[in-house]
Each structure stands twice: as C-alpha cells, then as structure tokens.
Amino acid sequence: MPTVELPAGPIDYTDTGSGPVIVFGHGLLMNGNLWRDVIPLLDGYRCIAPTWPLGAHRRPMNADAALDHAGVSRIIADFLDALDLFEVALVLNDWGGGQFIVSERRHDRIGRLVLASCEAYDNFPPKPARPGVALCRLPGGPALFMQLTRTPMFRRGKQAYGGLAKRGIDDALLDEWFAPGLRDADIRRDLKKFATGTPSREVLDDWHREVVTFDRPVLLLWASEDRMMPVEHARRMAHEFSNAKLVEVDDAWTLLPLDQPERVAVELDLFITAH
C-alpha cells in the first residue's frame, strides 16, 4: 500500500484505475476499505481511498499534528496537493468534517463534492457517539473505549456500529478497523485528539455557512432510513448549496458503501458524467 508523508504525518492510501479522480473518505475507526465493494464498479475512474487519522490508521501521526475537524480537513488538502490532483470528486461518508476544506479555504482542487449520509450542521458527532467522546476525554478513556470494540454490544448494538449498516458489518472488517487502536498507544492518542476535537455549535454554524458557499456541483447522496445522519439535513442542504442534487437511497443506513454499493457506484458515475 502506498504512503505519502504529509506535514502532519503519514497517510496510507489505495490508488486504482485511471480517469476522473474520486477521493473517498470514511468515518471514525474506519479505513479506506469502507469502499472495497464500490471501487471495482467504477471502471473509467481513478479511485483513491486514503485512510485518514481517525483511529484506524496503521501508523501514528506526528505528535504535534492538529487532528480536530478543521485539522483533518487540512490534511485532506495537503494530501491532494502531495498527489497533485485536480478536479477531484471528494466523497464523504459518515464523517462529514472533510467539507470544512471549504471553510478552511483549501478547496481549489475540488471540482465536485459528494456528501453521502454524513455529519452536517451540529450533528458532530451524532448523539449515539457522544458517550464514547465523553469517555475519550477521561484519563485512560481511549484505551477503555478501544476495549469496548471487542464486545458484541459495540459491534452489533444499534446505538453503536450495529446501527451504521443495515446489513451489518462483518467481523473481519471490524477487526481490521479496530486493530490499530487496540495495539498502539500513539494511535489512541490520535483518536483522542480527533474524538474530542469538535468545536462549539457556534463555530460549527459559522463553518457551515462557509461550506454552503461552495458553488461547484454537489451530490447529496443520502440513506432515507439513516439512524445517525438525518435525511432532513440533506433536504435542507439541497436548498442551501447553489448547485446541488439530492438522491435518497432506500434500504440502507449510514454506510451506503456497504449497504448499497451498486447504487452508490451508479449515482457517482451519473453525477460525475453529468458535471
């Protein structure tokens, strides 16, 4: 797997195919393999799936790296710079903080933005995730939080990862996602920075007002039954962006790439081809 060294630290990624560039994002304690069932369906595109430093990354970031939402959005921008990518379709799922690349004024390489059942407005993090954030604030909290990832309650419970995919997430993938934080204290340090880095509602509101000034094509691809990311958010944003299309996907929850990979691939292709 290739790795690029950024000012904040190393980022692993996969890079397959050729054509218009799609860069995929993921959520907390996940990696680029979230998109493993979608990417093979996107023939004719260059598909890049980085693993952002959200707790499932293999190597820790630099000790002084800023890993709050704005900081990770700047890491995305640095990644696009390092690979010299242009007219990128940036696809976000679950974690929505990548959209703050706009409020950070680092979005010059973004040609299209896809928000796919992700955090928006003040839903950072969604309510079911907030007890975990509170735990991460405590001394030893991140280590205890990671131990919880071994439990059926965390993996299958509807208030945890069992509520993210309607068809469930197989244990092999969950093991891959959770292993780095279980074995490495520096990964848990990075996890704590990210999990506890959400700003006030007022700051989130300010950032959102900047984000919706993005005037290039936007696809709001949303699970109509989402338990974590309300579809009402997508419907509101469809009126706030100047060039947005809303597509609601049935029979899926937050992790659209796992629940409906074929539909996701089709909608991405239609959107990028049209714009």
TrEMBL record:
Keywords: Hydrolase. InterPro entries: AB_hydrolase_1, AB_hydrolase_fold, AB_hydrolase_sf. One of its GO terms (cellular component) is membrane. It comes from the Bacteria. Residues 20-252 form the AB hydrolase-1 domain. SUPFAM superfamilies: alpha/beta-Hydrolases (SSF53474). GO terms for molecular function: hydrolase activity. Pfam families: Abhydrolase_1. PANTHER family: HYDROLASE, PUTATIVE (AFU_ORTHOLOGUE AFUA_2G14860)-RELATED, MONOACYLGLYCEROL LIPASE. This is Putative hydrolase. It comes from Gordonia malaquae NBRC 108250.
